[in-house]
Design goal:
Helix content: 40-55%
Number of strands: 3
CATH topology: Arc Repressor Mutant, subunit A
Largest sheet: 3 strands, antiparallel
Radius of gyration: 14 Å
CATH architecture: Orthogonal Bundle
Strand content: 15-25%
Shape: elongated
Structural class: alpha+beta
CATH class: Mainly Alpha
Low-confidence stretches: none
């Protein structure tokens, strides 16, 4: 059972290293959390909604740079 738990925790660590909240994305990208939520719902960034929370994929270009082009 201990081995199973370690495997699950390892998988969770892998996932958590690759996602961020809208607040974290806002800070990283220099945009407001509200703007990040709009980008998520408009599918302008790679994200998934779980309940009321958007989970944003970390390793993608800053959408702020795309908006200024």
């Amino acid at each position: 059972m201990d081995q199973d738990r370690q495997l699950i925790e390892s998988d969770m660590d892998y996932i958590m290293e690759r996602i961020m909240t809208t607040e974290e994305a806002a800070e990283a990208w220099g945009l407001s959390p509200v703007r990040i939520k709009h980008l998520c719902s408009d599918e302008k960034v790679v994200a998934r909604k779980r309940g009321k929370t958007w989970l944003v994929y970390k390793n993608q270009p800053n959408p702020k740079q795309k908006e200024s082009e």
